[in-house]
Q: What sequence folds into this?
């Protein structure tokens, strides 16, 4: 059976799945579990991406110290491949870790640096956790790259070993990661899954977190975000092609709210999906020259109810103690109620950051 949805219902499924409806999640770990991943992009024009993503779901109950405690003390959350993830999902990634590294040239470089590998592991065992700068480069073969990773041998080795599940990140100091043996960070007992079973469960988890998605997602730099055959096939009125939908999410009541989203938020990260379902055009412009930006360096998508209605161009000026609003771009003219809700959410965010708003009408 193919499930038929109109766009309103498709959008509401997506918003509910991303925990952005009026009924907020109970706590931070529940939020990360529901989202499955939280991006760790360190750009903090407003706030670090992970903190902004969690605040947009939880509001005032969330504080950055909660995330640090979950990673460093409680071990209910772990960092891997650029995302925070619930520790209960570790078994879903173990087969991927066992199969890493997946590229031939990476495997060959690791083999050529066998002694370097042993020395780094021995140092971590004796002295860890350590910052990258505390580990000497004793590589036999330098990492070749035309980009920023060229000759960054310690960083590259640690990234590879983290991908393999041999080392892990027990905490951060500011933006800097510390490294340790994975056996000291991850729980000793993890369910052993086959690659196929782990992939099936990841697909189901991803679809539950998105609500509705294409079976094949746009390419991702770290890991695929496909949902495969999870859920049921669906069509959305007025949108070509087929989708996969979580059947448990269909037909539920919906009450929306207003939220300011990180550019790296999964709600808006798939630009094609939000264009098709929400009619929302968005590009992160921090990499563009200032003169070519339409919405701003780090514009935040604005959710209101079941619509993405605009972008907030603002930045946290912590030295001056202000949250500086350059513009609120409305994709279509805001009603008075929408404007009040958006402005109220901007003030809430500024107050949570401990800053005074300037530039807001």
A:
């Amino acid at each position: 059976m193919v499930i038929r949805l109109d766009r309103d219902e498709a959008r509401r499924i997506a918003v509910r799945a991303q925990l952005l409806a009026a009924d907020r999640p109970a706590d931070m770990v529940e939020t990360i579990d529901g989202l499955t991943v939280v991006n760790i992009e360190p750009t903090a024009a407003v706030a670090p991406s992970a903190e902004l993503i969690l605040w947009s779901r939880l509001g005032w109950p969330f504080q950055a110290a909660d995330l640090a405690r979950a990673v460093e003390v409680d071990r209910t959350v772990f960092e891997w491949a650029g995302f925070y993830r619930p520790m209960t999902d570790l078994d879903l990634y173990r087969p991927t870790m066992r199969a890493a590294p997946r590229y031939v040239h990476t495997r060959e470089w690791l083999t050529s640096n066998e002694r370097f590998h042993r020395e780094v592991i021995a140092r971590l065992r004796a002295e860890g956790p350590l910052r990258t700068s505390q580990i000497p480069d004793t590589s036999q073969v330098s990492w070749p790259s035309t980009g920023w990773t060229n000759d960054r041998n310690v960083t590259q080795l640690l990234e590879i070993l983290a991908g393999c599940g041999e080392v892990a990140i027990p905490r951060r100091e500011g933006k800097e990661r510390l490294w340790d043996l994975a056996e000291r960070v991850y729980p000793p007992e993890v369910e052993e899954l086959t690659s196929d079973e782990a992939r099936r469960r990841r697909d189901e988890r991803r679809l539950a977190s998105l609500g509705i998605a294409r079976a094949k997602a746009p390419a991702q730099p770290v890991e695929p975000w496909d949902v495969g055959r999870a859920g049921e096939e669906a069509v959305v009125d007025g949108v070509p092609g087929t989708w996969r939908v979580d059947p448990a999410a269909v037909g539920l009541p919906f009450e929306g709210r207003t939220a300011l989203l990180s550019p790296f938020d999964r709600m808006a990260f798939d630009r094609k999906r939000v264009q098709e379902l929400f009619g929302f055009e968005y590009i992160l412009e921090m990499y563009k020259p200032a003169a070519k930006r339409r919405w701003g360096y780090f514009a935040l998508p604005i959710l209101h109810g079941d619509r993405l209605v605009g972008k907030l161009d603002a930045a946290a000026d912590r030295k001056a103690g202000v949250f500086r609003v350059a513009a609120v771009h409305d994709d279509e003219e805001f009603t008075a109620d929408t404007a009040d809700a958006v402005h109220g959410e901007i003030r809430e965010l500024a107050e949570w950051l401990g800053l005074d708003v300037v530039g807001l009408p």
Summary: The chain has a mean pLDDT of 95.
